[in-house]
Inverse folding.
């Protein structure tokens, strides 16, 4: 695989998740086709205040996570990558904080079996966020990053700051799947407890 093709695929998850936050600020109809209705949770809408936290576990996605309300499931057909499977995205806005989960399932082995795929992806991802259409205008800088893991699989924790905003992100590569969790908030309204509750609640589960 050439470098350009690799970069296209590596950016796919990051840019799609970030554009999801921008989409959340525009009127649209939620897409529930991924099975979220089967969770039997009350639908509370996408924008919430003093939200009630609840666990989501979308069928077939391989994870569970706590979110402050019932999320919308969205598709993003604007970003394409060669041989890339469909992307699932889940979003909730509560107390001026944006909570987003992006899942890219079953990447082709020709991508994931590339030498140092995980290391290259983790290296490229921060630049993708900073330069994305939604976030470039906020002038984010990468403040810190550290290696994390779950069940022996590699991940990264990133912190981005600008003058008025903060964004924290965790990314895991689980075999052929990529999971991205991001929380963005104005600095004046950020709740560190809620950020930690969201990010640390991610767990793998069998489909």
């Amino acid at each position: 695989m050439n470098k350009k093709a690799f970069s296209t695929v590596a950016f796919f998850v990051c840019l799609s998740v970030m554009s999801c936050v921008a989409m959340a600020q525009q009127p649209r109809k939620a897409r529930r086709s991924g099975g979220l209705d089967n969770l039997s949770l009350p639908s509370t809408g996408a924008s919430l205040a003093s939200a009630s936290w609840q666990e989501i576990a979308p069928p077939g996605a391989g994870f569970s996570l706590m979110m402050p309300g019932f999320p919308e499931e969205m598709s993003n057909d604007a970003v394409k990558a060669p041989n890339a499977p469909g992307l699932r995205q889940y979003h909730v806005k509560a107390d001026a904080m944006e909570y987003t989960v992006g899942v890219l399932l079953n990447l082709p082995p020709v991508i994931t079996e590339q030498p140092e795929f995980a290391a290259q992806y983790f290296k490229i991802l921060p630049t993708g966020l900073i330069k994305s259409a939604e976030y470039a205008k906020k002038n984010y800088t990468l403040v810190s990053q550290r290696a994390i893991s779950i069940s022996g699989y590699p991940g990264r924790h990133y912190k981005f700051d600008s003058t008025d905003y903060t964004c924290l992100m965790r990314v895991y590569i689980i075999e052929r799947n990529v999971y991205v969790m991001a929380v963005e908030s104005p600095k004046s309204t950020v709740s560190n407890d809620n950020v930690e509750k969201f990010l640390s609640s991610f767990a793998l589960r069998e489909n």
Remarks:
- The two ends are 30 Å apart (CA to CA).
- The longest helix spans residues 3-24.
- Residues 61 and 207 are 7 Å apart (CA to CA).
